[in-house]
Structures are given as structure tokens and as C-alpha cells.
């Protein structure tokens, strides 16, 4: 299996490091042809406006939309924003997932925080019992989802922070910044 990580901006190196630790072949994606032969793609955290601008400049918007029709894509934080259909403002979006997202939704005093989340789907898929320690950095929330989208996790205040629609996955937090590899393992099962 070969998984690409969109490497235009943000913390793509951290995702690549986790994938390597799991023994997966990786590729940095900067141009449309880098998508050839990939089984799945991760869009990292960073700044969604910058990722959108660079994806437009490198003619990646259409190839990424097409890739997502047939292959697994996982967006973390800025990547989740970029995957969504609606964020209530104008910036380039792939529009692949039927979710409405609000950027920087946790306000200033909670700009960054960590929380233990009960994620039954992850526990079941990896045959583990521990809660998932999630790191949020100027994180978005998933305001609402359409009916074929499954809610995977909610923050302690009840707001949605992870969702799945078929082979598409969105998390408001950063699994690439902790040692827990269960979310990456879960994504690999979607890409398989
Ligand atoms: N606040 C960023 C945005 O709106 C996302 C932050 C992140 O990816 N950690 O794109």
C-alpha cells in the first residue's frame, strides 16, 4: 500500500513519520502526477486558506476532487476544512464531504487544548479500550453533517470533531502529533 500526504504547507512531515512507523510506503504530493499509484491521501493540518491557494496555483484542485471519488482521503484540521462542502465563507474547498465546518471554532482562550475522547469506532477497529488523546490547535468544528455522514467523535462540549463518509475521513484534531497510531491504522483500513 502507498499513501500520499499533500505536502504544500502544514505538518505533512509528521504524518509521513507516523506512516513510516507503521511500515507504509509514502509519497509527498505537490503536483497532480504525484497522485498516480496512490491508494490514499492525507491532507495535513496547517492553514486551509494557504493550502487552497497553493492547490489552485499547482493545478491540483480538479485532480484531488477526482482522486477523492475513488480513493480514501483523510483531512486533519485544516485538511478537514479543505475536504468540506461548506464553511460559510469564500476560499478554495474540495467540497468532497457533506459536512459544514466552522473554522477556529473554539475561540481564543481555547485556541489550543487537549482532550480524551471516547471513540467507539476506533476502539472497535483496533481492538483496544483506551480513550483517544486528541490535540486541538486553532481547531475547526464540524457544525453539521448530512445523512450519509457518520459522526465518529465529539468534543467534551458535545460538538462534532470527527466524521466519516464512506472512504472520506475528517478530524478536527491532530493524530499525527501524538504517539497513538490508531487513527492512522483506521485510515489505512479505509484505503485498503
Ligand atoms: N485554523 C486553521 C485553518 O483555519 C487550522 C488549524 C490547524 O490545522 N491546526 O485553516
Spatial order of strands in the largest sheet: 2-1-3-4-12-11-10
Q: H/E order of the elements? A: EHEEHHEHEEEHEEEEEH
Can you summarize the main beta sheet?
Answer: 7 strands, mixed
Coarse shape: globular
Q: How large a portion of the residues is in β-strands, by DSSP E?
A: 25-35%
The radius of gyration is 15 Å
How many strand segments? 12
The low-pLDDT segments are none
What does the average pLDDT come to?
Answer: 97
Bound molecules: glutamine
In helices, the fraction of residues equals 25-40%
Q: Decide which structural class fits the backbone.
A: alpha/beta
Count the DSSP helices. 6
* Distance linking N and C termini: 7 Å
Tell me about this structure.
By secondary structure, the chain is an alpha/beta fold. The chain has helices spanning 12-21, 48-57, 61-70, 78-83, 120-126, 182-191; strands at 2-6, 25-29, 40-43, 72-76, 84-86, 97-102, 112-117, 132-137, 141-145, 150-154, 160-165, 168-171. The strands form three sheets. Strands 2-1-3-4-12-11-10 form a seven-stranded mixed β-sheet, with helices on both faces. A three-stranded mixed β-sheet has the order 5-6-9. The chain has a two-stranded antiparallel ribbon with strand order 7-8. Helix 5 crosses helix 6. The protein is globular and about 40 Å long. The termini are close together. The model has no long low-confidence stretch (mean pLDDT 97). Bound molecules: glutamine. The site of glutamine (GLN) has 11 residues, from helix 4.
Amino acid at each position: 500500500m502507498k499513501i500520499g500526504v499533500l505536502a504544500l504547507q502544514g505538518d505533512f512531515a509528521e504524518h509521513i513519520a507516523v506512516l513510516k512507523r507503521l511500515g507504509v510506503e509514502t509519497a509527498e504530493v505537490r503536483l497532480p502526477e504525484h497522485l498516480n499509484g496512490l491508494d490514499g491521501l492525507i491532507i495535513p493540518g496547517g492553514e486551509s486558506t494557504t493550502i487552497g491557494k497553493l492547490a489552485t496555483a499547482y493545478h491540483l484542485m480538479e485532480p484531488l476532487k477526482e482522486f477523492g471519488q475513488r480513493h480514501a482521503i483523510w483531512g486533519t484540521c485544516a485538511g478537514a476544512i479543505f475536504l468540506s462542502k461548506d464553511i460559510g465563507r469564500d476560499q478554495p474547498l474540495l467540497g468532497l464531504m457533506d459536512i459544514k465546518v466552522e473554522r477556529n471554532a473554539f475561540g481564543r482562550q481555547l485556541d489550543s487544548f487537549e482532550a480524551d475522547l471516547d471513540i467507539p469506532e476506533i476502539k472497535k477497529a483496533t481492538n483496544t479500550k483506551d480513550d483517544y488523546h486528541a490535540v486541538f490547535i486553532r481547531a475547526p468544528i464540524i457544525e453539521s453533517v448530512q445523512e450519509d455522514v457518520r459522526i465518529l467523535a465529539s468534543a467534551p462540549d458535545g460538538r462534532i470533531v470527527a466524521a466519516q463518509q464512506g472512504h472520506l475521513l475528517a478530524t478536527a484534531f491532530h493524530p499525527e502529533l501524538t504517539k497513538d497510531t490508531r487513527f492512522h491504522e483506521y485510515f489505512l483500513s479505509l484505503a485498503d
